[in-house]
Structure formats: C-alpha cells, structure tokens
Amino acid sequence: MTLSAPAIVIMGISGCGKSTLGRRLSEATGYGFIEGDDLHLPEHVARMAAGTALTDEDRWPWLERIASALKTARDGQGVAGRIVSCSALRRRYRDLLRSRVGDQLLFVFPKVPVDVLRSRLRNRPNHYMPASLLDSQMATLEAPMPDEPVLTIDGEADADQSIALILGFLALRNDVNARATPR
C-alpha cells in the first residue's frame, strides 16, 4: 500500500494508546514501527521512573533521534514507511520533527480525557512512566492547531475503528494529492 505519509508520529500524553495504535497501524500498512520510548537515554528513563519530568534540554536530543528514525523512511532506505510513538507535546517539538522529516509527515493524536488517562496509567503494568507525571504532561501539552498536519482521533475508540479512520484519512489524502498533481 502506498500512502501519502511515509512518516507517521502517533503523539500524545502517556497512556493515550500511542504504542498500541502504532503497532496496529504498522501491521495494517507494512510500515516499520519504532517505540519512541526506546530512543530515550537510560538516565532519562530512570528520572521519569523516579517521578521527575524531563526538561526541554533533555528532550531535544531524543527528538533528533526520533527525526532520524523517521527520516530513514523519507530517504527510501528499503522501508515503505515508518511509524514512531512520540509524545510531541509542544508545537515546537512537532515543528522540529517536521523541519527534519519533511512535509509528508503526519501526526495522529489520540485524544483521551484526563480521568481515563489517570486510570490507564495506574493500571498499566511494567511501564516506567508513573501516573504522578500525568499532570506535568497535561501542563506541557499544546493542543495541535488547525494549521498543523495532525489527525485528531478519539483515543477511547476501539483500535480497529481508529486504524480504519487513519487509513481512510490517508486514502482520501492520496486521492486529493493525485488529483492535484498535473499529468
């Protein structure tokens, strides 16, 4: 399947379903999936696990690693595309990724009410991110603006419905792009 976005970031607050959605979208598209948490430095994971939020200075090198992973898809290095889970909570983080990856980067934002996120984080086994950091993430989140290439979806929806919605959006975007391209 050729899609209009060879690079996709599943973004949002911890517990919104980024990893689950990224893996499922990878299966549906044949794109490679990269768990953004795996690109954090071990000392940053330890700090977050201890309940200390990262600073912007901590995040910039991580975002550069995310951009490099996504850019592989743009450089045509034998992959159909890449999907990365990455919080990308601030506009400037998303702007950095767009500047490094290019205009065919799509962000997907599963939006979830804070009470649902809190419950998910409390009941999530084997993950370093404590529920105590939810408030700092909520304070950091800058909701995507209309001028950003972000598809906002219901983060409480069934994963199959979410995948169908994303694929439908990408198909529609392909169709629009095909019609706009002079022949």
Description:
With 183 residues, the protein is an alpha/beta fold. It is built from 7 helices and 5 strands; from the N terminus they run βαβααβαβααβα. A 5-stranded parallel beta sheet has the order 2-3-1-4-5, with helices on both faces. Helix 3 (56-74) packs parallel to helix 4. The longest helix is centred in the C-terminal third of the chain and has 22 residues, at 159-180. The chain is globular and about 45 Å long. The model has no long low-confidence stretch (mean pLDDT 85).
SSE topology:
Layout: E1 7-10, H1 18-29, E2 32-35, H2 42-49, H3 56-74, E3 82-85, H4 91-101, E4 105-111, H5 114-122, H6 134-140, E5 150-154, H7 159-180
Helix pairs in contact: 1-7, 3-4
Note the quaternary state here: single chain
SSE arrangement, N to C:
EHEHHEHEHHEH
What spatial order of strands do you see in the largest sheet?
2-3-1-4-5
Mean pLDDT: 85
What class, by secondary structure content? alpha/beta
Please tally the helical runs, counting DSSP H or I stretches of 4 or more residues.
7
General form: globular
**Which runs of at least 5 residues are low in confidence (pLDDT < 50)?**
none
Question: What is the gyration radius calculated from CA atoms?
Answer: 16 Å
